[in-house]
Amino acid sequence: MRILLLGGSGRTGSLALAEALARNHTVTAIIRNPVALAPQPSLSIITGTPLNGADISKAFADAPRSDPIRAVISTLNTGRTSDNPWANTTSPPTLMADSVRNTLAVMKEHGVKKMVVLGTNGVGSSRANSGWVFNWVVDHSNLKFTFDDHYEVQKLLQAEAERDSNFKWVDVRATGLSNGEKKEVKEFGAEGKGVGWWVSRKSVAVFLLDAVEGSQWDGQTPVISN
């Protein structure tokens, strides 16, 4: 299956790319800097941004007729000047929602019915179990823009599924991302009650591919940690 990957040059996206290729999928990745990803068999690179609908259209049009894009994975997140989650942002405040909105429009043109996105714990129904201190920090820092953007993505996916019952989506709500090795992923439903503090990026990559290949979490917002 050919997968369109958004955010494929990022720390989590690059691991999702590696996991997809290891499972013998083909991947089309849209990235701004083509040298950010090394050429690999089964990988097609489109120079551009999902903020530009024309670049998404090119990604779909350039896929071989014998191997068209069948699903989309997005690991996009707010860009920052450092790894500090409160660092100044370097991307538009609605990067994720605008990219998903553009992608959904092109997916509809091509009849593609599956999208899996990487979200975050503390959004939507999982907010209630995040703790008042964490929620206060989010609400009173520039994290609020990121969390609002994540929530808008969820609403876009839900709205598309309401318009088209054949459209399937998963919004994977990960806790704090670490750089550890693959470990067992534990699920805590949509509310995240009892979720742990961390999940490794490699574990998230596995979960994203499981979600795009299967149907177990379709229409859900599973909260995960190790």
Describe the structure.
By secondary structure, the protein is of the alpha/beta class. It has six helices and ten strands; from the N terminus they run βαββαβαβααββββαβ. It has helices at residues 11-22, 53-62, 95-110, 132-139, 143-163, 201-213; strands spanning 2-6, 26-31, 43-47, 69-74, 114-120, 168-174, 176-178, 186-187, 198-200, 223-225. The strands form two sheets. It has an eight-stranded mixed beta sheet with strand order 3-2-1-4-5-6-10-8, with helices on both faces. Strands 7-9 form a two-stranded parallel sheet. Helix 3 links the parallel strand 4 (69-74) and strand 5 (114-120). The longest helix is centred in the last third of the chain and has 21 residues, at 143-163. It is globular, with a radius of gyration of 16 Å. The model has no long low-confidence stretch (mean pLDDT 95).
Radius of gyration, in Å, reads: 16 Å
Strand content is 15-25%
**Total beta strands:** 10
Low-confidence runs of at least 5 consecutive residues: none
Helical/strand content category: alpha/beta
- Name the shape in a single word: globular
Mean pLDDT: 95
Share of residues in helices: 25-40%
How many helical elements?
Answer: 6
- Straight-line distance between termini: 28 Å
Give the spatial strand order of the biggest sheet: 3-2-1-4-5-6-10-8
Largest sheet: 8 strands, mixed
- The H/E string reads EHEEHEHEHHEEEEHE
Quick recap:
By secondary structure, the chain is of the alpha/beta class. It has helices spanning 11-22, 53-62, 95-110, 132-139, 143-163, 201-213, and strands at 2-6, 26-31, 43-47, 69-74, 114-120, 168-174, 176-178, 186-187, 198-200, 223-225. Helix content is 35%, strand content 21%.
